[in-house]
Amino acid sequence: QVRLVESGGGSVQAGGSLRLSCAGSGYAYSSYCMGWFRQAPGKEREGVAVIYGGGGITWYADSVKGRFTISRDNTKNTLYLQMNSLKPEDTGMYYCAAVKAACVGAPQWVRYWGQGTQVTVSS
User: Fold this and answer.
1) Three-state secondary structure call for residue 116
2) Residue among 84, 90, 86, 94 nearest 4 (CA)
3) Mind listing the pLDDT tens digit for each residue in 32-70?
4) Dist CA 79 CA 29 (whole Å)
């Protein structure tokens, strides 16, 4: 049974930081590109950051470059997203995902989704 379990969401003020974690199980974790996606109310789900299976290559959405850092620990089957200098527009549900093909931030390439963790940034 595949499981992706996110944690670390919460409410912060603008300029603050949060670190999201995602524990994966039930599949060949280290062979998958992993990513973080988010969805704000009334908006489509969008890619935030992805990281190749070996961890050496990453991609970020322009809106988070320089503020967010994606990383993974394949010995713990865990994915991370360090979010600094948070802005109100970063508010949304953040989803961990295992990407099945092209390692890009496109939701249509996701094979497995987590249940999501809420991030709320107040001004």
Assistant:
1) coil
2) 94
3) 999 999 999 999 999 999 999 988 899 999 999 999 999
4) 10
